[in-house]
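hey so u asked for the seq, here:
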Amino acid sequence: MRSTISLACAAVALTFGWALVAGTAHGAGAGAAPSDRATAAEAVDDAAAGRPPHDVAALEQATGELARAKRAGAAKVDRLARDGAARLKPCWRRGPGWKRIRAVTHASQRARYAAAARTLLADMRTLLTVQQPLIAVHGDAYRRFVARLRGAAIHDPLLGEAVAAQARRVEAYREVARVKASCAVFNRALRVVRDFPTRTPQEIVRADYRVSPRARRIERHVSNQLKRIDRRSGIGHRDADTLADAAQRMVALGGSAGYATAFQYALSLR
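ran it, structure tokens below
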């Protein structure tokens, strides 16, 4: 009984929608702008045909085009990633930087410097094997993706905020591509390594205070640069939340869950 009533209500609502479009086309809605009448007609057509609305369809189409570009460039990304890993291989366990660390006599200081050096190398490896290869190969596709979204005239406020968040990411990637990572950079960063005396308990405490900021400077050499780029580009934690909310909105409006997730992570450098 309830399903019968629901079907009847849906039929009435759809009939009313078609009547509204027809009345508008024949002058019943003379006060409405032509673009408004067209938008109303498109919305009714989409609902009748089971299609997602214009905003969602535009996002899905742009996301699909970007996905095809990513697949086409996957082999080149892998090649650049291998080249990036090879650039760091000479300083992974040896070189002037590691020589400075091994010259530190106090074990706790040496361990702190070594941990910082490994963190820096890991950040550099991520930059050279993941982030920069993706930007180098897909940078143009990323920019086309954002241009397509901006040209689609998204009306939904939340989806519009998500498009703006994606645009900020693309702008930031221009600077990320210029961050330097190499064995020469690594060895320069380790020039701050110093062996502090630990002959007395007071000197041991003093040495810990002196080593910690130097080690943090080493391990954050890359990460601090990326954080500054995010700040200059206006990227914050809210952007990730906005993209997650936009993905949920796309599904709620009738879009594909797969496309919604793909849009959320379309510009992820992972």
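The chain has two domains: 1-51, 52-264. Residues 66 and 141 are 6 Å apart (CA to CA).
lmk if thats what u needed
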